[in-house]
Amino acid sequence: MNLRIPYRGLVVGAVAFGLGTMWQARRRRGAAITELTEKLARFQAAQEATRAELASMPKSTRKLMREWSQVVYTEVEDLMALYRDIGPEQALPRMHGWAAGPDLARFLYLEVVERGRSAVLECGSGSTTVILAYACRAVGKGRVFALEHNPRFASATRKMLEERGLSEWAEVVDAPLTEVSVGGGTQLWYDPAVIPDQSFDLVLVDGPPGSVGPQARYPAVPLLVDRLTEDAMVVLDDARRTDERDIGERWAAEHDGFGLEWFTHDHGTLVLRNNADDEPDPDPRAV
């Protein structure tokens, strides 16, 4: 049984708010770093107090809390690293709740900055669109295309890009859901006619939402496999859900030459790699 920690969003959200607020005052960097250090010290002190209380709790509860603590620390570290790497002039988008967490966001950022991926397609839009646009800007090349079926979400993402001067690095494509033929049947998915006519070396699958129907994200690989480069990778978010795990296993079984990896990000991430045997060592958090 997959257990979700209800406090994760509160802790990461609070840290994100603190970091974002401090980064607004870039000219006061010294004071901001001091304040951040003090906040982290208070957080660590609170955790030590919690550990003392846990001593009398059942072993299963202590194990769960240790796992939760590791997730929180990892996300805080990745969020801080993103602020350090990007150095944004305003706060980064929120990365908690329904949005991809800082762990997945930084994983994607490094794929562009360190591994040279430059042709990016997103199924869904949001905070990751902004992070990927920052990554393209950092290396001075590449472009992100984000398919979005919800006009409200599309508008919100465009606004985030415009506010940060990133519109030339990322484009939100209005992509209504339509019936597509895959797997011997039909499903609702983004209208293939609006997808740019090019190849992609990074595809992030974070939509459509599960409410669209069973295995709503499955069509991504069958419909895009002919557009994937030789070293392409497909990243599937929310892989702690059974539906997404089944999708990933189905992709790997149906397409020769692709390998599947699991990453212990908060929401769970599955990565499908083309020519997987030729890929470099994965993120150390992969298991």
From TrEMBL:
GO terms for biological process: methylation. The keyword Acetylation does not apply. CDD domains: AdoMet_MTases. It comes from the Bacteria. InterPro entries: SAM-dependent_MTases_sf. One of its GO terms (molecular function) is methyltransferase activity. Keywords: Methyltransferase, Transferase. The lineage of its organism: Bacteria, Bacillati, Actinomycetota, Actinomycetes, Glycomycetales. This is Class I SAM-dependent methyltransferase.
